[in-house]
Every structure is written in structure tokens, then in C-alpha cells.
Amino acid sequence: MKTKKYYDSNPEAKQKKKAYDTKYHSSEERKKYRAFLNKINRKAGKYGNGDGKDASHTKSGRIVWEHQSLNRARNRAKK
């Protein structure tokens, strides 16, 4: 929430971050990584089937299936 408040009150910084994020996520490395994750999902039959599961990366490097709300909530700011 602190980050959101900061960017809401600093439009120049928000614009700079958006430009950086766009450049970062359009890099070849990130494109290949997204393709790799999609390949895992398709191979497991999880891609677009609506079961609500995501591939979760564990600290040991394994990939396990976990409910998407739990997987996506882990590394975001707490309310």
C-alpha cells in the first residue's frame, strides 16, 4: 500500500516505473521465461482449464500446483 500511495502522489515516478517495466517485460529473457511457464502449464493440462491452479515455484526450485490466490498473494504487499 505504501508503494501505491507513493506512485499515486508522484505521477512522474509512476511514468518512469511504467517505462522501465515495459522495457523489462519485453526483453527476450522475460519472453522466454513466460513461454517456458506457459509450456509447463500446457504440458500439465492446466492452461485455460479453469481449475484455479498455478505453477508455484518452491525455494528448492521444484514446481508444485497451488491455488492461484495463495500463489499470487505470497509476494505482494500486505493490506
Care to describe what's here?
- The chain has a two-stranded antiparallel ribbon with strand order 1-2.
- The mean pLDDT is 88.
- It has one domain.
- Helix content is 57%, strand content 13%.
- The chain is built from four helices and two strands; from the N terminus they run H-H-H-E-E-H.
- A hairpin with a 5-residue loop joins strand 1 and strand 2.
- With 79 residues, the chain is α+β, with helices and mostly antiparallel strands.
- The chain is extended, with a radius of gyration of 16 Å.
Low-confidence spans: none
Specify the overall morphology: extended
Give Rg in angstroms.
16 Å
Biggest β-sheet description: 2 strands, antiparallel
- Spatial ordering of strands, largest sheet: 1-2
- Report how far the terminal alpha carbons are from each other: 7 Å
Global mean pLDDT: 88
Q: Report helical residue fraction.
A: 55-70%
Count structural domains. 1
Total number of helices? 4
Q: Give a count of the beta strands, DSSP E runs of length 2 or more.
A: 2
Which strand-content bin applies to the residues? 5-15%
Structural class: alpha+beta
Order of H and E elements:
HHHEEH
